Amino acid sequence: MSFTLKAQGHFAKLEKNRNILAKDLIHKLNKTGDTLILESNKKINYLYTINKDYGRDLDVFIDTTSFKLPLNKLSKGKHVLVAVQSPKRIVFVVRIINEIPKPSDALVAEDVVAVEPNKLQTTKIN
C-alpha cells in the first residue's frame, strides 16, 4: 500500500479562507501535500468542488467532523472547494500543480472515505 512521491516539489497549493466566520473549519494539506485534511468541532455535512471548466469533480456527503480527501481524485488546475456546515458555506481554493501519483497497489480502494475522529475508550476495572 505504499507508493513513491516525486521529489519535484509541491503537488498542490491551498488558498485558505481567512474569513473570521470560517475559523471553525481547519483546512490544510498533509506533510506530503497530496491529501486535503478538513477538521471541525461541528459536523461537515457536504463537500463539493468546482474545477476550472465549471464542472464538478467531486460531490461528497460527509456528515462527520473529520475528513481526508486524496488530491489524486482532482484533475490538474484550479478547484474551488465548498465545505457545507449548515447553514454556512466555506469556500477555499486548491490548485493542483503537478499530477499526484495514484497508489500502485491494486488492492487500494478508489473511494473517498469520511473518517470519524479518534475517540478515547475507557474500561472500568473492578
How does this model look, in words?
This protein is globular. It contains no helices and six strands. It is an all-beta fold and 126 residues long. The N terminus is likely disordered. β3 and β4 form a beta hairpin. Strands 1, 2, 3, 4, 5 and 6 form a six-stranded antiparallel beta sheet that branches.
Task: Measure the end-to-end span.
Answer: 42 Å
Order of helices and strands: EEEEEE
Overall mean confidence score, pLDDT:
79
Note the beta-strand portion: 35-45%
Count of alpha/pi helices: 0
Helix/strand-derived category reads: mainly beta
What best-fitting shape do the alpha-carbon axes yield?
A: globular
Helix content: under 10%
Main β-sheet description: 6 strands, antiparallel
Beta strands, count: 6
Would you identify the regions where 5 or more consecutive residues have pLDDT less than 50?
1-8, 105-109
Backbone CA Rg:
16 Å
Brief characterization of the structure:
Helices cover 0% and strands 44% of the residues. The protein is mostly beta strands and 126 residues long. Strands 1, 2, 3, 4, 5 and 6 form a 6-stranded antiparallel sheet that branches.
Topology:
Elements: E1 12-15, E2 25-29, E3 35-51, E4 59-70, E5 77-85, E6 88-96
Antiparallel strand pairs: 1-6, 2-3, 3-4, 3-5, 5-6
Keywords:
126 residues, mainly beta, six-stranded antiparallel sheet, 0% helix, 44% strand, disordered N terminus
